[in-house]
Amino acid sequence: MKENLTLAWIASWFALVGQLAFFIVVASLTGEWRYIMWSFIVSMSAGVPCMILTRQAQKRGNQKADLLED
Questions:
Q1: pTM of this prediction?
Q2: Cα separation of 13 and 29, whole Å?
Q3: Comparing C-alpha atoms, which of 38, 50, 40 is closest to residue 13?
Q4: Residue 24 in contact with residue 38, Cβ under 8 Å?
């Protein structure tokens, strides 16, 4: 079964950067700058593990492809 890693990378980047950008806009519109602090914590705790898992899956896929070529 082929994994769709492109979708996983998009989700990881959205969790890391997209949420933070969204809450920067919210904070600038409302004037409550604490939104950025909490969104930074959440985006890091969600985005970094997702990127690590996606990278590991990509490495496993590359290793399988290398084994099939040999």
A1: 0.70
A2: 24
A3: 50
A4: no
Residue type at position 48: V
pLDDT given for residue 28 in this prediction: 92
Phi and psi torsions of 42, nearest 5°: -70, -45
CA distances from 55 to 2, 33, 61, 68 (A): 15, 33, 10, 20
CB-based contacts of 44, cutoff 8 Å, min separation 6? 16
pLDDT at residue 45 tops 50: yes
Q: Report the percent of the chain where pLDDT is more than 90.
A: 17
Query: Rounded to whole angstroms, what are the CA distances from 28 to 6, 21, 35, 54, 59?
Result: 32, 11, 9, 32, 40
Could you give the C-alpha distances from 43 to 1, 3, 67, in angstroms and in order? Answer: 30, 24, 36
